Amino acid sequence: MGLVRCLGIGVQSTLHFAGGTMPANDAIQERRSEFDVSNTVDVSDPTAVRNAVTELFLDLYPHAAVDPLWLAFHDFERMFTGADPDYHGVDTAYHDIQHSLDMTLAMARLIMGYERGVEATDRLGAERAMLGLVTSLFHDAGYLRHREADRDQRHGAQFTLRHVSRSSRFLGGYLSRVGLGHWGNVAQQIVHFTGYEIDLERLELEDPRDSAAGHLLGTADLMAQMADRCYLEKCRDRLFPEFVLGGIAIEDNNGESLVRYRSGKDLLIKTLDFYQNSARYRLEKTFGRAYRYIEVLHHGDNPYVTFIQKNMTYLSGLVSSNNWSGLRRQPPCFTAEPDSEARITRLAVQHIKQLARQKKIRLRGNDAQSPLPATT
Predict the structure, then answer these.
(1) Is 20 within the bounds of a domain?
(2) Which residue has the higher pLDDT, 323 or 373?
(3) What are the pLDDT digits (tens) for 279-292?
(4) Are the C-beta atoms of residues 238 and 341 closer than 8 Å to each other?
(5) Of 133, 101, 140, 98, nearest to 114 (Cα)?
(6) Do the domain assignments include residue 7?
(7) Is 16 inside any structural domain?
(8) How many domains does the chain have?
(9) 6, 333 Cβ separation under 8 angstroms
(10) Contacts of 144 (CB under 8 A, 6+ apart)
(11) Closest to 305 measured CA to CA, from 69, 163, 110, 34
């Protein structure tokens, strides 16, 4: 099964944003939906991203072998497109192929900036950098359904609350295939910097360089998705149904249902709070402002921060005006099936209706296509 599309900077970077209009900028206005922040790399194309990442890696480590990286990209494409006999392809429309590739490119850029910006004794070195890239590529492997072990699960989004732990277990078994088996314990820990399943203070990383790799990894994950040109539409139309199936939008609290997100619009409204109180804290404090290493490559500018600011400023205006007509983009999603966005929406609606039949929630209105929880 092949890859399928489903349709449905001139100042020092800071993560603060203010109201008002972002400066007009040709690069911002003309960026294509499936391209990275520089509008030069198609981050829906594994080959394009592999070539870009390999170039960055060899620029840093000209004598290092890139065979593990190429093999990892080969395996990634087979697994996520459904060509691997052991796994269904990715079916999560938000956490799709583009997201993993976009993050891996961001990780490669952060590694380059880090290696150029720190003392020699603090540098990651070629093998640890390679580990960071492979971990980035498979950081969301936990969403994939194994054809046998997960045959009772209908959709990868059902693993949302434990997908990072699943990715961790996958990496522990996978790395030996690319010659990095001795890094398994480190990979299984640093991948948790991309999630919220465990307290990061509990991670036992003896080498500070391993912690640095984890900070870069967590930073790349947040930066890539929040700087996506269509981040807001993807949150509303794709992340919300993933959260419904994953038990986040409507949480089972000892038999009682706690409604956290009533709709895709409600999730967007609360994204402002998530950014200010969670994402920014991680980027600034937990990850030690590792996003600043991008500036080494851009003469003090940070295009990722620029696009994050643009998205958050635009969202703030939407919330203030309560006029959501400005969210009209229909970005492609890159999954193993042709109708992944429509399918996850149907499954989310079915799940909400089932909760209503069980009297765990009440529905507002009679719109069968989009039932929204009313109260807990």
Answers:
(1) no
(2) 323
(3) 999 999 999 999 99
(4) yes
(5) 133
(6) no
(7) no
(8) 1
(9) yes
(10) 79, 80, 87, 88, 89, 90, 156
(11) 110
